Automatic annotation (TrEMBL):
GO terms for cellular component: membrane. Residues 24-156 form the MARVEL domain. It holds the Pfam family MARVEL. The keyword Transmembrane helix applies. GO terms for biological process: myelination. InterPro entries: MAL (IPR013295), Marvel (IPR008253), MARVEL-CKLF_proteins (IPR050578). This is CKLF8 protein. The chain crosses the membrane at residues 24-47, 53-78, 90-110, 130-152. Keywords: Membrane, Transmembrane, Transmembrane helix. GO terms for molecular function: structural constituent of myelin sheath.
Amino acid sequence: TTTSSSFTANLSASSSTLAYDREFLRTVPGLLMVTEIVLGLLVWTLIAGTEYFLYPAFGWVMFVAVFYWVLTVFFLIIYMTMTYTRIPQVPWTMVGLCFNGSAFVLYLIAAIVDASSVTKDLDNHNYNSWAASSFFAFMVTSCYAGNTYFSFISWRSRTLQ
């Protein structure tokens, strides 16, 4: 006789159908997340096209921009595929609040560092790229602030976005 564990049976049954929540992109948090991805991509590509590695301040901005861009793409995939419903042990509202809150704080610091480091005296050739990256960094910061607000509301009401 052959027996299978309930874990294996549940895994094979649940992985056979992959859910797709296209309605998530129509919500304000979903739209903010897509905006964070697009604008965050602009921030780090504008800096990556320069000699940022010569200036530690821009290295910090690059780290924050790339780190949160990758994590935001990861969370978008989790929400779009409704993976959070398959892992109920994770407190997703708390995870979302911590993620968005930390992204807001670190992006705000990075945007301020970026803006304060942009001078024509530093490097006239890269001035426009750095100035544009500073502008978009503040835009991404405002998006993360909005998502932090919605995450807080979701956490407070103990419901999942």
